[in-house]
Amino acid sequence: MAVPFHVPAIGQEEIAAVSKVLDSGWLTTGRVTAEFENALAAKVGAAHGVAVNSATAALHLALAALGLGPGDEVIVPVHTFAATAEVVVYTGATPVLVDINPDTLNIDPIAVKEAITSRTAAIMPVHFTGQAADLEPLLATADGIPVIEDAAHAFPTRYRDMTVGSIGTATAFSFYANKTITTGEGGMLTTDDTELADRARLLSLHGLSSAAWNRFGTGAKWEYDIVDVGYKYNLTDIAAAIGLVQLAKADELAARRRWIAARYDQAFASIAAIDPVLVEAPEDSSWHLYIIRLRHEELGVDRNGFIDALASAGIGTSVHYKPLHLHPYYIRRFGYKPTDFPVSTDQFSRIISLPIYPDMEVGEVDEVVDNVQRIVDDHSL
Length: 381
Fold this sequence. Notes:
alpha/beta; 12 strands
């Protein structure tokens, strides 16, 4: 039985919502997008939501709205997707990479504390796999330094008695095709800071003083001003319509992901060569990813060989992520060396992301487990 790495949970409700927008005659950013902004902000308990076309855009707007530029530094975990650090480079600031916790793979608060300098203008934790980073020590260490949360994996996620999206200075969510809720492509910036939200909204569409849907409606005035140089980051009503339906399903989709993760946890607990990433509060994670680590000392196959064996059995997998300091750009531009971040480097050599998506059938979950067990048995030392 073939099991893909991901299948989006799209149904007739999403199709109907898109059709309604198509029939309306207004396809780009408009009233449906505003409704999506308000609904998602309310869901996470934030005062403002700014819908954009990616989490990358949301992160960039947060930093741009704060006025970051050359001479500033932003602390970023080395174990993340390219977007987290590259948005720092967009502003002219410098990303300062730090290592991760070996159990959760989230940013290490101690490493953050050691990396802070007089030039630190923001701290950008990533809620890796959908498990919240340990925000309490990070916020204490920040002591007023803006904390911009990369929550691309983390909707809906809770940290203790708080909801991710309403904790730090601002939070960026992703609605990419493989995320816990999707709009195909899309993202959202949430914040309680009205000035930051207004600035981000202005910059999200060319710095225009008036959005298109306010200019082109019946009886509206065409005139606008370019208040500042901005970007083309707006979300369409087509995408927002999908997002509203997905948002209504979010708790149900998250519950299904938790069920799959629990089934994996139970199965892998008895396989000594497999070490799942520690999730300290499983009921609070969005479970965007389910990651196992291989214990090299117990296996005669490396990570890539294990992935090849799963692929031969029809099991889709991925790796999240190759650490930033191992990529040529970061070596060339910032002088990082492969030995700089030993925890992330070690984890990278052992991690495999397994299929986890709401429409997975019980038989598909068991097929993944059975093949992991078979490969371990074939290669045990």
